[in-house]
Amino acid sequence: MNLYKNFSFMQSKVQKRPAGSHLTHVLNHKTHKAIRWCTPSIDLSSSQVRNPYLSDTSISYQSLGYPSEPSGIFKKIYEHAAVAYGADHTLFSVNGTTGSNFIVLRALSKQLPNLRILAQRNVHRSVVVACEDYGINLIFLSPKLDNENQIFIPNTEEQIIEGIKKTKPQVLLLTNPTYEGITLNLKKIVTRIRNEYPKVIIFIEEAWGSHLHFSKKLPISAMEAGADICVQSTHKQGGALQQSGMIHWKNDRINLDLLMDSYRNLSTSSPSFILLASLDAAREMMEKKGTEKIDHILTIAEQLRKKVKNVKGFEIVSTDKLKKTNPSIYQRDESKIIINVTQTGYTGFEVASILEKKYRIIVEKYNANTILILVPFRATLKDVELTINALQEIAKMPKEIKKQTQMDLMMPTKIPRILELSDVAKLLWSQVEKVPLTSAKGRIAAEYITPFPPGIPVTIKGEELTSEIVDYYLKLKDYPNAHISAEDKSLETVLVVK
Ligand SMILES: Cc1ncc(COP(=O)(O)O)c(C=O)c1O
């Protein structure tokens, strides 16, 4: 009897939910109420795992099969996804594009000894770190930046072809679309490379393009343009949960065995089946209703653009305007909206912070001069109305902070490489030293310095910290709400080669 009593007592204790741990509390009571102009772009009507806590399971559940082989249900859902996304093969990732970049680059480094990759400078830091770790020689095309809006502009077709001719890479890596949704004329470039350099593998970093394949109103997807391989963050704009992604590739130039070897060995042995299910659900949703869902986000984006135009101080940066000064821009994913805020007297950092703290409106990205709005599948006209009201109030707010003049923060345009990445990778800790940022001019960086968002390193190991770059950091670090990922995130000191 006593035993029974104890047992039922224990049971009731187990079943009683705790009041709410810190993060569960925030997620349950705050986050879900926010207006999101950011990732993840979840469609709330898509298939969902009903109770993630009850359904969570492990690979010990043998009859489901194994995602890393793949076998069982996983083989089936990967095959289905390959057809839906226009690929010969697809794998799911539970570590975003970050994990996929490591998987793909490890496989390529084994397929092509002494691998040289030519890339645009706006690579995510996972690309650079993977190249460092796998001894890949990563060569960059000269970066092109639009300093008025502080965004990266793709290189022209001619610059890319010239770069291939000069550096003779085995792989060309293009980040397409850019964070802001800007795309190259990918089909034309792929076709030209196929004709002139048929052996070059074309790897598209398509983190921001997992939805492209499902609407003619969006730029062409990497698979449709004929690229060899691409990685996507399905959690960004493709309808799946945070952390999820896909790798798609075609048979011709990619060694299947090596890619599967990387996938098996770099994937966690306990992948979240909830995330894998959300990828399968995103595939289903995009396949069945993708065109309609994309029409929805483009309509909301158009409404927002129209209304922002009437708010004093907030200027929409249109694709036509960007194209005028940047002929390499072919198209844009118009579900993203760049708003230049310099005429409000606030910086983009400040506007994003006010929107979040005062109005619980979250924007995707912000910098000194702009904010970036990403329209997710769940966005409504009500969100547009509330956001416009907030912007109108911000426009009228007295400015407490000194006006940062437009163009005050110039992103560096010349980034000289002094040491090869593979050489810096071999440096010992004793060959590196920490110096004050103010005395780092002319020194060689021994760390990555990455402003967030967007997560694109401004400094990569082995590059010179020129006066222009150091001056940029000295200004950036004092901007309210600037977030910098570096050894010393306050950027008082930096790591340099001794
Ligand atoms: C171009 C690019 N690649 C990769 C990533 C990282 O993707 P994930 O967060 O899915 O790991 C990002 C993140 O913003 C990105 O902008």
Summarize the structure.
The protein has 17 helices and 21 strands. It is an alpha/beta fold and 498 residues long. It has three domains: 217 residues, Type I PLP-dependent aspartate aminotransferase-like (Major domain) (Aspartate Aminotransferase, domain 2); 118 residues, Aspartate Aminotransferase, domain 1 (Alpha-Beta Complex), CATH 3.90.1150; 86 residues, Orn/Lys/Arg decarboxylase, C-terminal domain (Ornithine Decarboxylase, Chain A, domain 4, Alpha-Beta Complex), CATH 3.90.100.10.
The CATH top-level class label of the largest domain: Alpha Beta
* Sheet having the most strands: 7 strands, mixed
Quaternary assembly = single chain
Task: Output the strand order for the largest sheet.
Answer: 2-11-10-9-7-3-4
Low-confidence stretches are 1-12
C-alpha Rg (nearest Å): 24 Å
What's the CATH topology name of the largest domain? Aspartate Aminotransferase, domain 2
How many structural domains can be distinguished in the coordinates? 3
CATH superfamily of the largest domain: Type I PLP-dependent aspartate aminotransferase-like (Major domain)
Apparent shape: globular
Percent strand: 15-25%
- Helical segment count: 17
Structural category is alpha/beta
Q: Spell out which ligands are present.
A: pyridoxal-5'-phosphate
Keywords:
Aspartate Aminotransferase, domain 2, 16% strand, binds pyridoxal-5'-phosphate, disordered N terminus, 4-stranded antiparallel β-sheet, 7-stranded mixed β-sheet, alpha/beta, Ornithine Decarboxylase, Chain A, domain 4, Aspartate Aminotransferase, domain 1, 498 residues
